[in-house]
Write a structure and sequence with these properties.
By secondary structure, this protein is mainly α. A two-stranded parallel sheet has the order 1-2. It contains 21 helices and two strands.
């Protein structure tokens, strides 16, 4: 189902002009709305929890192997043998390719339609994609898993991810980084909630004849749809001319924060857009490569020392010992997700103080040192420092995502920032391929060359440090956007007038006021309780690292 088709049938309650805030609205209701959507679509990070159960959906207790000569077309339609994990993993690739491409394609539509309509479409696509996936499991049709959660769900990811960006930046002109950091940290936290919840549900539905995945898809799909609709209907947009009471734009000019607006059709024509695109691509490529291999990396580097047997390398462990360290490594992956989430809020908030460009200098400068240092920490057996180093690295990975919307607003203005951000997310799609390919293929090359398990990743870390050197240079080259690209004030006024939003004199007009009142506290509880549960489950698992 296309965005246009859904839009055509949408009732007036979804229209942008119906969600303009009026006096008495509390702007602190908008971040939990964004979090509600991001916590759901963030489960894309945790989808690997389904790979092993789906790889034995027919055999239940062990996979029923397909013929060695079976091609990919036959695999898509077979009902007689189990799928390979590698074939299921294409769903993960589709998530992030479709996330970037759909955000780029429909970012402009989102700016016109508003965040509520985009949030509803995202809920339909993400929840509906999981329901189609359930049908694919029941009928054992791999193509339905690729199309359902992969393609349709991926569109939901893209629209859901960018739905709050422009709105939050307009609600929090005084705290751009913090506002987007609060929302985007939810995407990092979605797997912390979804993965353990999915494991509990699969265990609940599992039987002698069923692995329990399709039922889990149905429950998650329905639950995510309701939760995302709650977020979508909580969205409000400020009228033109609104600004927080008591706040005025800084009187000291900052060349790196524009007071104008660049049109969506012109943003990609500027060198600043492509430099920021490269900055994000290089930062994400380094981080996502580590995320994808976090568990085997810890196991192969530290081997028996994870279970109190430092004299045993990974290859010397028996099956039981390997199972034990696999559980510990899962805790390591969970701990990295905590750093990923915390970094989204911390670094984005810090960028409000030190500026976006300086924040990215921190990412690249500190990242170069940490990536180059990790092989030394590993060979010295400094497990705690190794884990801490990768925690900081992942905090900067998440921080890069959370800071970039504010960076774009600083460069291109707020009028089209959501759509420009959508186009920039093609950097994520690119990094989602580059990072894992570099890490995985270098590991396989080293392994085939006879490199010991505890040194498989040394060269990889140095190459990723090289990525960050290139990113540092790209960030250094970013300058203010040339004024020739700025829209005329009359054109901005006409565009705003055509958006069906009321315009008025600059000021607060009683909108956006209030702290933690009852309604706002309830909204934060709705998103805060599941997030705290996810943090607890992650910490419970992560503590096993230190045994």
């Amino acid at each position: 189902m296309s965005v246009t088709a859904i839009e055509a049938t949408a009732p007036g309650i979804l229209d942008r002009e119906r969600i303009v805030a009026t006096a008495g609205f509390n702007r602190w209701l908008v971040p939990p709305a964004a979090l509600a959507i991001h916590l759901c679509i963030g489960m894309a990070y945790g989808f690997s929890v389904f790979w092993l159960p789906l790889a034995q959906a027919i055999g239940v207790t062990k996979p029923v192997a397909c013929p060695a000569d079976m091609g990919i077309v036959a695999t898509l339609f077979t009902t007689t043998c189990d799928w390979k994990v590698a074939d299921l993993g294409w769903m993960f690739t589709l998530f992030f390719v479709l996330l970037g491409s759909s955000a780029a394609i429909w970012g402009g539509w989102l700016e016109r339609a508003g965040p509520r309509k985009a949030g509803v479409v995202a809920a339909i696509c993400w929840g509906g994609g999981l329901l189609i996936g359930a049908i694919g499991v029941i009928t054992h049709q791999l193509w339905l898993l690729w199309v359902g959660p992969g393609v349709i769900g991926g569109v939901g990811l893209g629209l859901g991810y960018i739905s709050p960006v422009s709105t939050l930046i307009k609600w929090f002109p005084d705290r751009r980084g913090m506002a987007t950091g609060m929302a985007i940290m939810g995407f990092g936290g979605g797997a912390m909630i979804g993965s353990p919840l999915a494991a509990i549900l699969m265990q609940r539905f599992k039987s002698a004849a069923d692995v329990g995945v399709w039922q889990t898809f149905v429950v998650l799909g329905a639950g995510y749809f309701v939760y995302m609709m709650f977020g979508a209907f909580l969205y409000r947009v400020p009228p033109h001319g609104w600004r927080p009471d008591g706040w005025t734009p800084p009187t000291v000019a900052n060349a790196m924060i524009t007071t104008g607006n660049v049109h969506l059709r012109d943003a990609h024509k500027t060198p600043q857009f492509w430099l920021i695109w490269l900055v994000l691509t290089l930062n994400v490529s380094a981080g996502i490569g580590v995320i994808g291999m976090a568990s085997p990396m810890l196991q192969e580097i530290f081997g028996g020392s994870l279970i109190g047997k430092p004299e045993l390398g990974f290859a010397q462990l028996d099956a039981g010992q390997k199972a034990a360290i696999a559980g510990i490594a899962a805790g390591f992956a969970g701990l990295l997700s905590l750093f990923n989430i915390a970094g989204r809020f911390f670094w984005a908030s810090l960028s409000d103080k030190i500026g976006r460009k300086m924040t990215y200098f921190c990412f690249f400068g500190l990242g170069i040192v940490l990536y180059a240092l990790t092989p030394t920490l590993a060979h010295a057996g400094m497990k705690a420092l190794f884990v801490l180093a990768f925690g900081v690295i992942l905090s900067m990975y998440g921080g890069g995502f959370a800071t970039v919307p504010a960076y774009l607003a600083d460069m291109f203005g707020t009028q089209f920032v959501g759509a420009i951000h959508g186009r920039l997310l093609t950097a994520w799609s690119t990094a989602g391929i580059v990072g894992p390919v570099v890490v995985n293929y270098i590991r396989e090359f080293n392994k085939s060359a006879g490199v010991p398990a505890d040194r498989l990743y040394d060269v990889t870390m140095y190459i990723l440090a090289g990525f960050l050197v290139a990113g540092f240079i790209c960030n250094l080259l970013i300058r203010p956007v040339d004024k020739k690209w700025m829209m005329k004030e009359d054109d901005v006024a006409k565009l705003q007038a055509a958006s069906a939003l009321p315009s008025g004199p600059v000021g607060g007009h009683g909108i956006g006021l209030g702290g933690l009142d009852a309604k706002t506290a309830l909204a934060w509880l709705v998103v805060g309780v599941p997030l705290l549960w996810g943090v607890w489950k992650t910490l419970e698992s992560a503590l096993k690292i230190f045994g």
